[in-house]
């Protein structure tokens, strides 16, 4: 009689083996696959698009806006890496720099709440929310 490992000695010299074990051989527990494999994480789950801090639209790409402009921060002796930033979509970022000078941004609009409170910004973001995120918006 052979054990599951192919041993034909009687009695089987394999430790913990008896040739009269259950069907599938005495070493069937060794030959099994073990616990089921964890579920695959491929393909990776899709991530939602990040949202613009000003208009709130979910867009595929955002730009970094320095709340205190780099030119103004350097004059105050602040390192560029230490300046406060926020992520904006390209139309919002362009609108801010076309509407306000760096001096105005540094003096009056150093946080996102102050920018949102400005009437022109409110009007622009209200209109921008009606545009699809994939549409290229031209800011004049």
Indicate the topology.
Blueprint (H helix, E strand, L loop, with lengths): L27 H4 L31 E4 L3 H6 L9 E4 L1 H10 L2 H7 L3 H6 L1 H10 L12
Antiparallel strand pairs: 1-2
Helix pairs in contact: 3-6
Summarize this entry quickly.
The protein has helices spanning 28-31, 70-75, 90-99, 102-108, 112-117, 119-128; strands spanning 63-66, 85-88. It is mainly alpha-helical and 140 residues long. The mean pLDDT is 80.
Overview features:
140 residues; 2 strands
Your description of this structure?
With 140 residues, the chain is mainly alpha-helical. It has two domains: 32 residues, no CATH class; 66 residues, no CATH class. It is built from six helices and two strands. The protein has a two-stranded antiparallel ribbon with strand order 1-2. 16% of the residues are buried. The model has no long low-confidence stretch (mean pLDDT 80).
> What is the first-to-last residue Cα distance?
90 Å
Largest sheet, described in full? Answer: 2 strands, antiparallel
Strand residue percentage: 5-15%
**What spatial form do the alpha-carbon principal axes imply?**
elongated
Domain count: 2
Question: Averaging pLDDT over every residue, what do you get?
Answer: 80
Count of strand segments: 2
Q: Percent helix among the residues?
A: 25-40%
């Amino acid at each position: 009689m052979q054990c599951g490992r192919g041993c034909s000695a009687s009695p089987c010299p394999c430790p913990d083996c008896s040739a009269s074990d259950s069907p599938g051989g005495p070493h069937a527990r060794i030959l099994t696959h073990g616990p089921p494999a964890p579920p695959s994480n491929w393909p990776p789950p899709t991530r939602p698009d990040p949202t613009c801090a000003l208009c709130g639209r979910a867009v595929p790409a955002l730009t970094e806006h320095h709340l205190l402009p780099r030119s103004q921060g350097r004059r105050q002796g602040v390192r560029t890496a230490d300046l406060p930033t926020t992520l904006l979509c390209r139309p919002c970022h362009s609108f801010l720099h076309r509407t306000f000078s760096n001096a105005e941004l540094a003096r009056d609009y150093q946080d996102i709440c102050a920018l949102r409170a400005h009437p022109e910004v409110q009007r622009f973001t209200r209109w921008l929310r009606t545009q699809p995120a994939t549409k290229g918006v031209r800011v004049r």
